[in-house]
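Write out the 3D structure for:
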Amino acid sequence: MKLVGATLGLALGFSAHAGQADMIDTDSLKPWETCALCHGLDGVSRMAKFPKLANQPYAYLVKQLKDFRGKRRVNDGGMMADNAGLLTPETLRAAARYFSEQPAPRPSGVKSTALGQMLFETGKPDASIPACNSCHEANPPDDQVYPRLEGQHADYLAKQLRDFQAEARTNDPNKVMRRIARRLSDAEIAAVANFSAGLKRQ
């Protein structure tokens, strides 16, 4: 079964396991079209389980794909480790470049709070929690290895913070996100995730 063009959306949710079982023939697809089965051809996924890849820094996307392939980052069920394992160094870079060049996603329609704004813009110095935007820059360089947070799914952001907190995600440079996440309460995680998702990218 060939999936091309407009039919890509029908395959949302299929994993690499299906492709390996020859239920989906991806041979004719560009590497980013295979990614689009879950993340959207425009890099703006419709489900919070799958992050929006559009307009993320190229170096960040390359790092995450390499980390999945090298089992330095794991996700629910190992889907991304399987998918990234099918990419060559050339197709990995091509997919990362494609999504990095897509238009930025629109802000998510979530309710922002003063708490979320404070954490994002100033942090909590007395609790050794830096401002999110001190690393997650509004206009990052192409070699930035931290993701852009604005317009991302709020539920996805909250899950990543909880995963860092629980050591379920461990591919953060110098353990910086694990240290920060451990200092955040559940209410603070929800607040900063919602605030980030509701921001428009510059």
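Residues 58-69 form the longest helix (12 residues).
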